[in-house]
Design a protein that fits this description.
The chain is of the alpha+beta class. It is built from nine helices and ten strands. A hairpin with a 5-residue loop joins strand 3 and strand 4. Helix 5 runs antiparallel to helix 8. The structure holds the ligand COc1cc(-c2ccc3ncc(-c4cccc([C@@H](O)NCCN(C)C)c4)n3n2)ccc1O.
Length: about 280
C-alpha cells in the first residue's frame, strides 16, 4: 500500500471503527475493519495541533513518525498500511496485533524462564537491528511498547514510533525524552543520543524479564535518574539466584555508561546467551 500519499477522503467511508484498544500521547488506538475486505487493523488517531494551541501533535512530528514507519519492514516491527489526513486528525492504519503488551504478560508472572526471556530478547534485538540498519533509533523501548502477536505469546512486534528518529552522522541529537526507568545515562545528562541509547533500554528490559524488578527505579524520578547516572544497580540474590552468569554478563555489557563502549545490537545477537553454541552432533 502506498503510504507516501495521505488519503483525504473520510476514513469512515472505508472503515468501520471499533472499540478503543489503547491510548498514547495525543493519540488513541482503535480496532478498525476495512469494509470491502473485512480485514482488521489498528488505527492510531493522532490529534493535530491547531493554531497556537498546545493540545495535539505538531504535523512535523506526525510526518517524522510516518517517515520512520515507511522505512521499516520486518516481522518484529509493526507495519503501516495507509494514512488518512482529516481536518482534526491524522490516522495511521497499522497492522493489528492481538496478544497484548509484553508488560501485561510479565505482570501476570513474577519472572520468565531464561529460555523464554532469551527468546523474547532475541526477537527484540532482531527488530532493533532492522531499525539501526536503517539508521533509525527507537528511543522509547519498554515492555509497554512491545506487543505480543497473538495469544500464543511467542512472537513480538515493536510499536510506538512517536519518539523514533532517523539518525544521521552529522546530526548531534540530544533530547530529554523517554520513560525514566528505561532511559540511558546520556539521555539523563542531555548528551548525544545514538543507537547505543536503545541498547541500554534493552538491558533494562532483560533485567525486568528475568527478575520482575526494575534495576534503576527509585521512589522519585530524581532518584531514578541518579541511579542511572551512578550505575547504581545490583543482581539481588533472591531475584537472581537461579539466573546464569551468562545472562548477567549479557546485561552488564549493556549497563555501560560510555555509549561507545556499550554492546551494539550485533554484539548482543552474537552473545552466547542469545546465540548458544551450535549444538554438537552427538557421536553414536
Ligand atoms: C505505531 O505507533 C503505535 C502503534 C500502536 C499499535 C499498533 C498495532 C496494535 N495492535 C494492537 C495494539 C494495541 C493494543 C492494546 C493497547 C495498545 C497501546 O495503546 N498500548 C501500548 C502502547 N502504549 C504504551 C502507548 C495497542 N496496537 N497498537 C500503538 C501505539 C503507537 O504509537
Amino acid at each position: 500500500m502506498d503510504t507516501t500519499v495521505f488519503k483525504l477522503e473520510p476514513f469512515e467511508d472505508h472503515y468501520d471503527v471499533g472499540d478503543d484498544i489503547g491510548s498514547g500521547h495525543f493519540a488513541v488506538v482503535r480496532k478498525c475493519t476495512h469494509r470491502e475486505t473485512q480485514q482488521t487493523f489498528a488505527a492510531k488517531f493522532i490529534r493535530k495541533r491547531r493554531g497556537g494551541g498546545r493540545k495535539g501533535a505538531k504535523m512535523e512530528e506526525i510526518v517524522k513518525e510516518i517517515n520512520v514507519l515507511r522505512c521499516v519492514s520486518h516481522p518484529n516491527v509493526i507495519s503501516l498500511h495507509e494514512v488518512y489526513d482529516t481536518k482534526l486528525e491524522v490516522i495511521l492504519v497499522l497492522e493489528l496485533v492481538s496478544g497484548g503488551e509484553l508488560f501485561e504478560y510479565i505482570s501476570e508472572r513474577e519472572a520468565l524462564s531464561e529460555e523464554e526471556a532469551s527468546a523474547f530478547i532475541k526477537q527484540i534485538l532482531e527488530g532493533v537491528k532492522h531499525l539501526h540498519d536503517n539508521s533509525i533509533v527507537h528511543l522509547d523501548l519498554k515492555p509497554e511498547n512491545i506487543m505480543l502477536l497473538d495469544q500464543n505469546c511467542t512472537s513480538i512486534k515493536l510499536i510506538d514510533f512517536g519518539l523514533a528518529r532517523k539518525i544521521s552522522d552529522r546530526e548531534d541529537m540530544r533530547a530529554m525524552m523517554g520513560t525514566a526507568e528505561f532511559i540511558a545515562p546520556e539521555v539523563v545528562s542531555y548528551e548525544p543520543l545514538s543507537f547505543a541509547t536503545d541498547m541500554w533500554s534493552i538491558g533494562v528490559i532483560t533485567y525486568i524479564l528475568l527478575s520482575g524488578s526494575s534495576p534503576f527505579l527509585g521512589d522519585t524520578q530524581q532518584e531514578t535518574y541518579h541511579n542511572i547516572t551512578a550505575l547504581n544497580f545490583s543482581f539481588d540474590h533472591d531475584l537472581f539466584k537461579n539466573t546464569s552468569d551468562l545472562a548477567k554478563d549479557f546485561i552488564e555489557r549493556l549497563f555501560v555508561k560510555n555509549p561507545r563502549k556499550r554492546a551494539s545490537v550485533d554484539d548482543c545477537l552474537n552473545h552466547p546467551w542469545i546465540k548458544p553454541k551450535e549444538r554438537r552432533e552427538t557421536i553414536a
